[in-house]
Amino acid sequence: MENGGKRLPSKANLILRSIAAVYLLYIAYGLKDSILHGEGTRQIVCLLFGILFLVAAALLLFFSVKRLLNGQYAEAAQAEDETRE
């Protein structure tokens, strides 16, 4: 479970993070109408939150999928430790 002194997330946790990232992308996409047709402060606020959601979703999705593909989660590490013994 330990990887260089850090606790690894479970596979289910990484999948839930990926789902949350997709939901953030959906929310950012939903803000496009307010960005395109909004006026004044509302347009600026929607633009800022849209960018924030896009960046957060991209980072969350990238790192979660990277760990899933590389097997850097608790169950994979535990199985690897058992095969070494």
Plain-language structure description:
The structure is a single chain. This protein has 85 residues and is mainly α. A two-stranded antiparallel sheet has the order 1-2. It is rod-shaped. The relative contact order is 0.20.
Can you summarize this structure?
The protein is mainly alpha-helical and 85 residues long. Helices cover 80% and strands 5% of the residues. The model has no long low-confidence stretch (mean pLDDT 88).
Helix-strand layout with pairing:
Layout: E1 2-3, E2 6-7, H1 11-30, H2 32-37, H3 40-70, H4 74-84
Antiparallel strand pairs: 1-2
What proportion strand? Answer: under 5%
The strand line-up of the biggest sheet is 1-2
Low-confidence stretches: none
Principal-axis shape = rod-shaped
DSSP helix count? Answer: 4
Please describe the structure with a list of short key phrases separated by commas or semicolons.
85 residues, mainly alpha, two-stranded antiparallel sheet
